[in-house]
Automatic annotation (TrEMBL):
<protein>
    <recommendedName>
        <fullName>PLATZ transcription factor family protein</fullName>
    </recommendedName>
</protein>
<dbReference type="Pfam" id="PF04640">
    <property type="entry name" value="PLATZ"/>
</dbReference>
<dbReference type="InterPro" id="IPR006734">
    <property type="entry name" value="PLATZ"/>
</dbReference>
Amino acid sequence: DKKELVELLLKAKFYGECERHNHRKCNFFCVTCKGAMLCDLCTNNSDCKHKSHLVFQAYKASEYETLKIMVIGEYLNISHIQLYKINYLDVVYIKARPMRGQTLSNRDVPICEECGRELVIQQEGGSSFKFCSIECKYMSNACSLLDCIEEEDNVRKVEMVDNIDKGSRKRVYVDKEIISKRKHRRKGVPRRSPLF
């Protein structure tokens, strides 16, 4: 059940200390066992009962947990969620991250429809992401995370493009889908122009 999977992921306490192996962190999540947390030694153990189970591995990115899109994308509809490339892994954040002093600007920057976090600006031809994490998409009524992947008629495969950011070439992922533009952009906090 996809709804149960999302709820288990959001409740999971990743990177807690393993009860069986001291000083090891639990970054594996057994879906079959309804959220049992495991460390790398637990999963590599020859007598591990989870060998034949569905197990997700979480990765830390900026102190927050992520999942590989190649893995979670098989079980949940992750379209419109901001994708990141971290240590050569293509990932999505599980939970919404707090906005440390981030204020909404009046620049034409897309923001998460649930929490308001700024998202990556897309190049022309690609639609903007709508959510910053699995949690934000799940909490939003605008787009269902639980939609069947097979039912995504007009969504083309996630396609990698080069994004030119301040002179450096940076790889980002673009969710290619035709969407209607918002009629009135959300008003941001007014900012003074820089003094030169």
